[in-house]
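Table 4 source record.
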Amino acid sequence: MVFLSTLVTYLILKNKSMKLNQAGLKALHNREGLELAPYLDTKGVPTIAMGNTYYLDGRPVTLKDRKLTLVEANALSATTAERFDKEVDNLVTSNVNQNQYNALVSFTYNVGVNGFRTSTALRLINRNPNDHNIASALMMWVKDKELIGRRCEEIKQYFS
């Protein structure tokens, strides 16, 4: 009986289905930037649009690729953001508010789905989305100094 009750609770929570909203997409865009021509990211990986290292067809970005139009770059970025949006919605089982959700999509867009899936942050969020230890868990994902500002923005967004 306890198992059934837990399962019902889980299914109700999973049916919450949140989406990245316009404010979240704008914040993500501001953090990622938008580059129409291929460039090397801070790790030396060829990148284009809003931090994309792959095109929608699965091809990796190369520095020899043509410059995208603004429409193409926005479409690539929006589709990629939507993919991360769906993954975050599947992984987060607690009831988070819209700002928390938007911050988590931004975080996942940056660290990747596997990084988020295995993170201490996700474990804490699913246990209690208002746990202040979440801020420290997100800061664990600062691999170079360029990310300090981004993590601080995501944490501020998460707890607002």
